[in-house]
Structure formats: structure tokens, C-alpha cells
Amino acid sequence: MKLCRFDDDRLGVVVDNKIHDVTAAQDEIRAAYPYAMKGDAIIASLPEWRGKIEDMAAKAEARPVAQVDLLAPVARPSKTMAAPVNYHAHHAEMQADKAIPSTRPKGSGIGDQGIFLKSNSAVVGPSEGVSLRFPDRRSDQEVEFVIIIGKQGTDIHQDDALDYIAGYTLGLDMSLRGPEDRSFRKSIDGHAVLGPWMVTADEVPDPDNVSFKGFVNDELRQDAHTKDLIYGIRRLIEFASSFYTIYPGDVYYTGSPAGVGQVYPGDVIHAECGLIGPFDIDVRAHEFGGD
Ligand code: MN
């Protein structure tokens, strides 16, 4: 099942490029979960609700995907995790790029650095765009494969890790380059794009065997395959859960493949994955003095 959020916080099931509105299910689920829960009620409820949501979708009116504004597929992740340098080729390009200051020891990788967190307030969907606050500094696109956690767990062994995954989506870990702490630079509003929707885990037989691509203005920059991950999907979950309890709806950027590069206002970033779908997102200059 492909599950999306769209327009004014509506829930939809995507079938053949059409969105079937199941917002009534979302209303009922959210009303039944305590406000103080950790995680996202819709994702937490999927084991129980999936069948009902599919039945509702079959009867619901459908609209073409092109006619809606896509939001991030998860409304309330309790945290937004992200792997650094998790592809050898990206590690090499970062080491070689003298314009990118490194605040970490030369050559260190994910095992030494750990993962990092992006602010949840940076999460947006494709319709919301990415704004650049520092036009005189370099901001790069990092199109990544993203895990959406399905249930609570901690100290998870990698053999059990797939049981904790609700589904997958594509992400854009927008990255202002500079000397500041990584989570500061990568938590600017709009710098955690998720989309176009969540594909439930049953539709991805092997998450370590997924190809995806990232383009800027039709130029192919990232041509990637998750088999090249240094820490594969299972190990990433084991690693994160050795530090954190993970909750339903937590999102986990699995790391950027090689091909990152600067983007400018007016650019369009395109991400695509056969098992998930494509999205486009516009890059614009930040409007100072806004809300
Ligand atoms: Mn990244």
C-alpha cells in the first residue's frame, strides 16, 4: 500500500497515480490515541487499520496525484534520524572536496561518527519546497532512501530489524555546508524533505536491493543502489536502537550516495525510485521576515 498525506493534512491511498481520500480513518485513529504518545498515531495503527483503510480507499473518490499538494508522509515522527557517510563513493567525494570543511577526523565513518538527528520542524513534503537561507553559502542536495519505523523497540538485533519497519519513502537531506555542527546546518526549515508517499514494507521485498536516482534540473547527479550501503538497513536499525528507543513514525535517512552538489534558487530537484515513486521539489530563496 502507498499512503500519502496531502493538501490540508488529508490522508490518502495511492493507486495507479490516483489518490483515494481516507481522511475519515485518520480522524478516527488520531482521536483514539493519547496526545502524549511518542510517535505517529497513523503509523502506529497500521497493523490494526490497514485492512479497513484499504476498504475505505476502494470506495473513496480518487483524484490524480498531480492535482494535490503532497505533504510529508509522516505527520509526527518522534525523531528524524540520519546516517552520515554511508556509501563509500560519497565518503570519497566528501574527503576529496576541499570546499567542504570537515569538523571530524579525516577518514572517520559511520561507525565512529554515529548517526545524527535532524529537527522534526525541518520536515516538509514535496509541495512545500526548499528555501535557502544563505545564498552566499553552499547548499547541496542529498537524495536518500528513507526508512519509516513501524513499532517501538530498543536494543534490536539486526536479524529482527525488518520487523520494526512500517515502510519506506524517499528523502532529501538538504545540507548547508560549513563549520557548524551537522544537525544545526541540516535542520533549517524545509531541509528534511520526505515524499512522495510511504510504501509499506511488504512492497519492498529486500530493502538492501533498491535503486533510486536524484536529479537537479534533469541532470542525473545520484544513481544509487542500497546494496552499496556501508551499514545496510538492518545494521542501521541495530545501530540506532543501541542508543535510542525507536517509535512508530520515526524516520531514518539511510545516507547520501555520491553525486551531491550545490543547488540554487530556481532549481528543481527530482527524486525517483521504481518501488516508491517520483517527486519534484522547487528550490527558492528564503523570504526574510516571513512567519
Ligand atoms: Mn545525508
Detailed description of the structure:
This protein is α+β, with helices and mostly antiparallel strands. It is 19% helix and 32% strand. It is built from six helices and 20 strands. The strands form three sheets. Strands 1, 2, 3, 4, 5, 6, 7, 8, 11, 12, 14 and 17 form a twelve-stranded mixed beta sheet that branches. Strands 9-20-19-15-16 form a five-stranded mixed beta sheet, with no helix packed on it. Strands 13-10-18 form a three-stranded antiparallel beta sheet, with no helix packed on it. A hairpin with a 3-residue loop joins strand 1 (2-6) and strand 2. Helix 1 (23-32) runs antiparallel to helix 2. It is globular, with a radius of gyration of 18 Å. The model has no long low-confidence stretch (mean pLDDT 95). Manganese (II) ion is lined by residues 82, 142, 144, 173, 253, 255-256.
